[in-house]
Amino acid sequence: MGNTTSSAISKEILEDLKLSTKFTENEICQWYENFQKQCPTGRITPEEFEEIYTRFFPESDAKSYARHVFRSFDTNDDGTLDFKEYIIALHMTSTGKTTRKLEWAFSLFDVDKNGYINKTEVTEICQAIFKLIPKEEQSKLPEDENTPEKRANKLWAYFEKKDNERLAEGEFIKGVIENENAMRLIHYEPIKQ
């Protein structure tokens, strides 16, 4: 094997990532180099991921949100992210409102990974999202979404489900695509200064 192979990214993963993300070959190789430096083991732990994520949200508490994001990308449930899972995470959380992104959003909200979302789960993620919003921005939120509970209620209402009903992935995606507001409520976009 020799030492060279460990520092270069495999062709297979490179091709795969070029297809499934909008990143260029150069970008992916650059990410990979950084990844190797930061994570010599080739794996990211939840703690390391939290640290990376917190840098994007210096003004707020990103910990619980980062945990949920981590869970949703740890597709093989081994408690770590490998390079591929990590790049897909970066891609999904940074690009437009594609169906792929909504599929990811669904898995973010599906806290217990049972294939359905219920209102409790929506509330839990809304609480995590809320912590991402800097305090002074929270105070400017509309009256009907200025607490995590209100945000969850407002979002849940778009799906036309009772509080004790559950939501399948297709229904979730359809509900969000049809409601500009729901799209806004399922994540937090920092206000561009």
TrEMBL record:
Record keyword Disulfide bond present: no
One GO process term, biological-process aspect: cone photoresponse recovery
Domain of life assignment: Eukaryota
Residues covered by the EF-hand domain: 61-96, 97-132
Pfam families: EF-hand_7, EF-hand_8
Entry-linked SMART domains: EFh (SM00054)
InterPro entries: EF-hand-dom_pair, EF_Hand_1_Ca_BS, EF_hand_dom, Recoverin
Keywords: Calcium, Lipoprotein, Metal-binding, Myristate, Repeat
UniProt entry tagged with the keyword Metal-binding: yes
Gene Ontology molecular function terms on file: calcium ion binding
Function of the protein: May be involved in the calcium-dependent regulation of rhodopsin phosphorylation. Binds three calcium ions.
PANTHER family membership: CALCIUM BINDING PROTEINS (PTHR23055), VISININ (PTHR23055:SF166)
UniProt record similarity statement: Belongs to the recoverin family.
Listed name of the protein: Recoverin 2
Origin organism lineage: Eukaryota, Metazoa, Chordata, Craniata, Vertebrata
